[in-house]
Design a protein that fits this description.
Helix content is 78%, strand content 0%. It has 79 residues and is an all-alpha fold. GO terms for molecular function: mRNA binding; RNA cap binding.
Amino acid sequence: IYRSKHMESGQPHKRRKTSDANETEDHLESLICKVGEKSACSLESNLEGLAGVLEADLPNYKSKILRLLCTVSVFYLIL
């Protein structure tokens, strides 16, 4: 009988999806927070790259992306 790793460990398959979702959300947060940092690329180039990533992830992470953008923009307004 075929058994997946998840069945053998007693962990449901959803746990992996949750972990992947958390990793993706953490990655999005990191990208958004770092877009204005000094780098070899121009701010315009960084924003274009970020826009491409956000556009691709928007269908699955819309609320997280919007929340992060609002949080970051408020943070920079305070500075």
